[in-house]
Amino acid sequence: MTNLAQTELEKLFELARQAAQHSYSPYSGFRVGAALQLTSGEIVTGTNVENVSFGLTICAERAALVRAVSQFGPEIRISGVAIANRNGLASPPCGACRQVLAEFILPDAPIFFPAADGVRTMTFSDLLPLGSEMKLK
Ligand SMILES: [Zn+2]
């Protein structure tokens, strides 16, 4: 795992919890926040934004990622992610978010998220095996 201390992960988790306060989730009521630690030292947060079509809903992780690239450019690299929600439920990143994060994240970055058995930390490569091997050139 990259060298993020437990206290840094807890800070990221708290920022993710705060971001979830801004959730737009009138259909599910599931309020999720994500915080990305960038290798530059910056932290970028996002929240889920639902849509009446459901299919156009964007998760907190992808919202944060789009915000990070928009703010800091395409060279960003993510060294840690925290995900939190205000519903007391498990919220590991969904498959779509894992695939999108794979473009920008270090394989050994810790992912800190509520699981069914409590808050869990896993490396990104454990969450998406072979994710960094998908290349077009
Ligand atoms: Zn997702």
Task: Explain what you see.
The protein is an alpha+beta fold and 137 residues long. It has one domain (6-124): 3-Layer(aba) Sandwich (Cytidine Deaminase, domain 2), CATH 3.40.140.10. 28% of the residues lie in helices and 23% in strands. It is built from four helices and five strands, in the order αββαβαββα. It has helices at 6-20, 60-72, 95-101, 124-127, and strands at 32-38, 43-47, 78-85, 110-115, 118-123. The longest helix is centred in the N-terminal third of the chain and has 15 residues, at 6-20. The protein is globular. It binds zinc ion. Zinc ion (ZN) binds at residues 59, 61, 93-94, 96-97.
SSE inventory with pairings:
Elements: H1 6-20, E1 32-38, E2 43-47, H2 60-72, E3 78-85, H3 95-101, E4 110-115, E5 118-123, H4 124-127
Parallel strand pairs: 3-4
Antiparallel strand pairs: 1-2, 1-3, 4-5
Residues 59, 61, 93-94, 96-97 line the site of zinc ion.
Provide a compact summary of the structure.
The protein has 137 residues and is α+β, with helices and mostly antiparallel strands.
